[in-house]
């Protein structure tokens, strides 16, 4: 349908109808106008799967590798294929818009949402993001690229002010968005929660109107993050077309009309915003196709998608260390041997927490995959957890009876400030937790949970209590725990990462105990923005027996390791440790060093220790010198176990490359002094990007080599590659062609990423030494040779000149180099480049 017809439909709408289109109708859908033939468009999270309309307890979905894992393949074809599959998955959930990809930068290793983004490098993130968007939209499903922009932390994300100079904003943080907009034309962009240089992202006209629309020429839909609209007139004028979710908080017809009458907003602005929504609807469905009922969400386990998840997960795994060729663990090598599988081996660390979490169709654990692979080989496999990793105490879901004597809790809803005459009572509620994520949208009410608990064993029990607002828990009418004030980190509470005190209570298995929890909404704001959580109820009661809580699991693991020929330790972060809503607490593996202690103890008694680390970004590696092999497996999706075992055994030759630097010390990271900023400033929380353009390897290029364990782009293989003579030619369009022969000189098939970096031949302190400008993944049989050819765009040589407000190439000598990683030069050529200016 041409835009003229969109204009025609727009002309039939009343002002109130136009306004109604500018906010969601429900949590995940836009507003339909059936009488005008305008359907509702359903959206869904998230970057590594199409979850559907329920954050918890919905139908299952395919869980793909996290973006950090996908980027580690350095394979744009895999990114495109995953995009296509995600589009197909969205359609099984009745959705036509996926809230993905996330293309923010790994500014600091402790960023809680790093796993959800591709890389510390904007060029790599932009290329992988572009391919994902192309694949997704080829299936008729819109990509909503997020979060625009400078959303590199979770601490105080609703109101933190990111102070970013123009040059790093352009060269680092806007660049992946620019590449995706210009190369893939996404149909939607989602604004961030935070402020950028004093303006919230949803009302930042400089970013939306001047850069995104005017300079980049983009014509898609701008939507807010969920609850990320912060004004009426300002957001409309800045260019945020759609407030999400619905029902609206800021765009009630009366409020918008009042803004028009007062001169704060024009009717022309309303028309422009409504036109963008209609264009979006038209791209996805077309006018006149309004369903009376939303299609049922389906859990379709597509075998092609499962195979792709397994392939992508394995190809994203990075081999970081392989002393004395400890790996691969072939069937011949392990026949008749004893293997200890430890740590997270019986858990599938498929994804991170928050928007990226889905309920996978299934989960393949490393333990199950290992047993499957070696089932007929006489391999003696044992298992021990070896380390406590729980962040929160488990919920009370068993051994509890409600007021009717049936399993579960009884809960009562009361009008705020009342303690009698509940307005609603429900029996059989199955857990000691309640929040927005459980489907409870409970504004300005109070909740009481009531149940009778018979402990399964006589012991001391640990209890924890957390809540968005004030909360108390009583046992037999005695106060056990109290939270007097609002939660200090509302988003952390929502996504399961708030540290809370524990108390102990001795309980007799022969008795029943009445447990009662009373929760109220947050108190009026104490200076911390609650955003869409204002007035919401949220509470969580955790409980664990001391027998389980205090168990010595390390000794058991150590004994198994003593008798083993090989010990394989699965370390990492489950979704409670690496999650949206809260930045990581420590550079070390959780919990309280227990995983590091496990590795160190096992390495002291077993000659062959292999660590497989499943995290979304870099962690400390204090035991690196004591182990024989290390794999960085990231968060590889529902086939995690198969992907990991494929690489361990050589079924898949490792070919991943690091998408972020692994430093030795957190103190050496570029944003160390400015992450997550100052949260107690009188004017509100603030984070200063004072490292400028020196993010990731751009920073470490200026430090001694021994500050880094493993550089950006690093990755070993079970084979070896050699490179021939480098050729560099200038093309007629001003770009450069790079050609280099690559040979597989090892014994097995393998793949490697050929990386091209460029920089001035003479180091200029204000500029990075080099930056990634092209890459190509090449797969070769043993003995095979191929010539890899790449094109480097002329603008990749430019920097952003804040005085000229343009991209500028300083004339002079530049190096174009082929690298194995950011710290391993293969060959380079110097070229003379004339000065040049590019329009923004």
UniProtKB/TrEMBL annotation:
Reactions the enzyme catalyzes: Hydrolysis of terminal, non-reducing beta-D-glucosyl residues with release of beta-D-glucose
Gene Ontology molecular-function annotations: beta-glucosidase activity
Similarity remark: Belongs to the glycosyl hydrolase 3 family.
Glycoprotein recorded as keyword: yes
The organism of origin for this protein: Clonostachys chloroleuca
EC id: 3.2.1.21
Main enzyme class: hydrolase
Keywords (A to Z) from UniProt: Carbohydrate metabolism, Glycoprotein, Glycosidase, Hydrolase, Polysaccharide degradation
Matching SMART domains: Fn3_like
Protein name in UniProt: beta-glucosidase
PA14 domain ranges (all copies): 404-558
GO biological process: glucan catabolic process
Pathways per UniProt: Glycan metabolism; cellulose degradation
Alphabetical list of InterPro entries matching this protein: Cellulose_deg_GH3 (IPR050288), Fn3-like (IPR026891), GH (IPR017853), Glyco_hydro_3_AS (IPR019800), Glyco_hydro_3_C (IPR002772), Glyco_hydro_3_C_sf (IPR036881), Glyco_hydro_3_N (IPR001764), Glyco_hydro_3_N_sf (IPR036962)
């Amino acid at each position: 349908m041409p835009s003229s017809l969109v204009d025609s439909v727009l002309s039939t709408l009343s002002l109130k109808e136009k306004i109604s289109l500018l906010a969601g109708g429900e949590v995940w859908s836009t507003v339909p106008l059936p009488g005008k033939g305008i359907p509702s468009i359903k959206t869904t999270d998230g970057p590594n799967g199409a979850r559907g309309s329920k954050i918890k307890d919905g139908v299952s979905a395919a869980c793909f590798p996290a973006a950090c894992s996908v980027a580690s393949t350095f394979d744009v074809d895999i990114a495109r294929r995953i995009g296509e599959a995600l589009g197909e998955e969205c359609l099984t959930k009745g959705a036509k818009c996926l809230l993905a990809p996330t293309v923010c930068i790994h500014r600091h290793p402790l960023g809680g949402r790093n796993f959800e983004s591709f890389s510390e490098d904007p060029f790599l993130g932009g290329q992988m993001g572009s391919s994902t968007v192309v694949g997704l939209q080829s299936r008729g499903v819109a990509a909503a690229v997020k979060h625009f922009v400078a959303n590199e932390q979770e601490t105080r994300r609703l109101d933190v002010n990111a102070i970013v100079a123009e040059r790093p904003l352009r060269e680092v943080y806007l660049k992946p968005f620019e590449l995706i907009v210009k190369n893939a034309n996404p149909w939607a962009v989602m604004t961030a929660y935070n402020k950028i240089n004093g303006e919230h992202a949803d009302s930042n006209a400089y970013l939306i109107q001047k850069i995104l629309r005017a300079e980049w020429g983009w014509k898609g839909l701008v939507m807010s993050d969920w609850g990320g609209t912060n004004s009426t007139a300002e957001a409309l004028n800045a260019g945020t077309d759609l407030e999400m979710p619905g029902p609206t908080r800021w765009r009630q017809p009366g409020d918008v009309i009042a803004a028009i009458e007062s001169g704060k907003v024009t009717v022309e602005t309303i028309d422009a915003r409504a036109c963008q929504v209609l264009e979006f609807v038209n791209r996805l469905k077309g006018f006149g196709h309004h369903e009376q009922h939303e299609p049922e969400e389906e859990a379709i386990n597509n075998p092609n998608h499962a195979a792709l998840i397994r392939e992508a997960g394995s190809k994203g795994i990075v081999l970081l260390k392989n002393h004395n060729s400890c790996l691969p663990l072939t069937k011949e090598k392990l026949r008749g041997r004893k293997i200890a599988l430890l740590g997270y081996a019986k858990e599938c660390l498929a994804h991170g927490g928050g928007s990226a979490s889905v309920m996978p169709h299934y989960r393949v654990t490393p333990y199950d995959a290992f047993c499957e692979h070696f089932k007929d080989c006489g391999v003696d496999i044992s298992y021990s957890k070896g380390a406590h990793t729980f962040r929160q105490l488990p919920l009370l879901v068993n051994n509890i009876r409600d007021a009717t004597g049936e399993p579960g809790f009884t809960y009562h809803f009361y009008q705020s400030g009342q303690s009698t005459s509940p307005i609603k009572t429900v029996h059989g509620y199955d857990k000691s937790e309640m929040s927005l994520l459980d489907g409870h949208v409970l504004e300005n009410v109070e909740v009481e949970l009531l149940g009778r608990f018979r402990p399964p064993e006589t012991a001391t029990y640990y209890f924890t209590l957390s809540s968005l607002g004030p909360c108390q828990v009583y046992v037999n009418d005695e106060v056990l725990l109290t939270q007097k004030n609002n939660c200090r980190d509302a988003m952390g509470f929502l996504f399961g990462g708030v540290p809370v005190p524990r108390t102990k209570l001795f309980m007799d298995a022969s008795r029943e105990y009445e447990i009662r929890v009373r929760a109220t909404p947050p108190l009026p704001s104490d200076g911390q923005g609650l955003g869409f959580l204002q007035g919401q109820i949220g509470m969580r009661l955790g409980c664990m027996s001391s027998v389980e809580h205090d168990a010595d699991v390390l000794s058991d693991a150590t004994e198994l390791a003593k008798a083993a020929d090989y010990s394989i330790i699965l370390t990492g972060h489950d979704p409670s440790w690496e999650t949206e809503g809260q930045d990581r607490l420590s550079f070390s593996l959780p919990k309280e060093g227990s995983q590091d202690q496990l590795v160190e103890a096992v390495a002291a008694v077993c000659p062959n220790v292999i660590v497989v680390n499943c995290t979304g970004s870099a962690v400390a590696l204090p035991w690196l010198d004591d182990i024989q092999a290390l794999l960085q497996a990231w968060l590889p999706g529902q086939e995690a176990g198969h992907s990991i075992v494929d690489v361990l055994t050589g079924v898949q030759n490792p070919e991943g490359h690091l998408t972020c630097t692994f430093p030795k010390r957190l103190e050496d990271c570029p944003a160390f002094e400015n992450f997550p900023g100052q949260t107690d400033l009188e004017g509100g929380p603030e984070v200063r990007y004072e490292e400028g353009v020196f993010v990731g390897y751009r920073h470490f290029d200026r430090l001694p080599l021994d500050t880094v364990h493993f550089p950006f782009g690093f990755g070993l293989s079970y084979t070896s590659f050699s490179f021939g003579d480098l050729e560099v030619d200038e093309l007629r369009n001003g770009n450069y062609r790079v050609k280099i022969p690559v040979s597989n000189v090892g014994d097995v098939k393998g793949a490697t990423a050929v990386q091209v970096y460029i920089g001035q031949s003479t180091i200029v302190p204000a500029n990075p030494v080099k930056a990634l400008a092209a890459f190509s993944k090449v797969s070769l049989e043993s003995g095979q040779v191929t010539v890899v050819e790449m094109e480097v765009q002329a603008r990749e040589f430019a920097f952003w000149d804040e005085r000229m407000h343009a991209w500028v190439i300083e004339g002079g000598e530049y190096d174009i180099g082929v690298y194995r990683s950011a710290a391993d030069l293969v060959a380079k050529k110097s070229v003379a480049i004339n000065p040049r200016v590019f329009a923004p």
